[in-house]
Amino acid sequence: MLFLGSYTLILALIQHIYFLRAAAKRRPEKEQEVPSTDMIEVERALRNWQNGWNQDPESFLGPGSPLGPISFNATALLRMAYIRLNVDLGSWRALNTHDPHDIAVSIYRSPPLATNPRLARAVLYSAHALSIPVKIGVNIVAHNQAFSWSLQHSLCALECAFIISKWLIAIQPRVSEGTIDEEEARLYAYIEDMVIEAEAGGEIGTSSSDLCTRVVSIWARILSGTAHWNVVKMIGNILEAYAQILQTRPC
């Protein structure tokens, strides 16, 4: 089964990204970013991985593969790889506290993101992750994710919500001024259309007009259903608390 090899390889790439960031932190403070040469090499490896996954006849984008969930889980790991390559989440997730409110506050207080094309690509992958449950139906996924979503998908959801929300916060001033570039405008519109589609079914109960809050609320709703692992419930509670913080402190 080729997808088993793909799954192992994407895990190895995530581990490689971790070591690149760990090595960068040992350098002087002003040089603690991952070198651009390493970024380019990892991006090439991720593209090659994705091309291989696309060509594998056993690969499956949804959770209903007759061969099991490994191929579907690998897509979550690909998104995590792009996120972790572009953003050092580090201790800002504060998952070791096991307190949803404290973790949500830590995420909110994390440093602002510097927007760039690489970050936009990671945001796009994160938005694609949200588009799948939106197309299926948020409530349907919420009620059935325990049977089809792995722990990797739940962790990926947290990181996707993190990076989309921080990106929206970063570009909001330029959105208001009408100075975002064409690529950013397309990505912003894509996220906005997806949120409108999710809300059109009456599945999301938020009174906020803030796009950032609405995105996080959708993720929170998806993870609000029954779960096999307590950590999945905790992630759902984190996202709910984060959405509440964003609602009281708009982007």
TrEMBL record:
<dbReference type="InterPro" id="IPR051059">
    <property type="entry name" value="VerF-like"/>
</dbReference>
<dbReference type="GO" id="GO:0008270">
    <property type="term" value="F:zinc ion binding"/>
</dbReference>
<dbReference type="GO" id="GO:0000785">
    <property type="term" value="C:chromatin"/>
</dbReference>
<dbReference type="GO" id="GO:0005634">
    <property type="term" value="C:nucleus"/>
</dbReference>
<keyword id="KW-0863">Zinc-finger</keyword>
<protein>
    <submittedName>
        <fullName>Uncharacterized protein</fullName>
    </submittedName>
</protein>
<feature type="signal peptide">
    <location>
        <begin position="1"/>
        <end position="24"/>
    </location>
</feature>
<dbReference type="GO" id="GO:0000978">
    <property type="term" value="F:RNA polymerase II cis-regulatory region sequence-specific DNA binding"/>
</dbReference>
<dbReference type="GO" id="GO:0000981">
    <property type="term" value="F:DNA-binding transcription factor activity, RNA polymerase II-specific"/>
</dbReference>
<keyword id="KW-0479">Metal-binding</keyword>
<keyword id="KW-0539">Nucleus</keyword>
<keyword id="KW-0677">Repeat</keyword>
<keyword id="KW-0862">Zinc</keyword>
<keyword id="KW-0732">Signal</keyword>
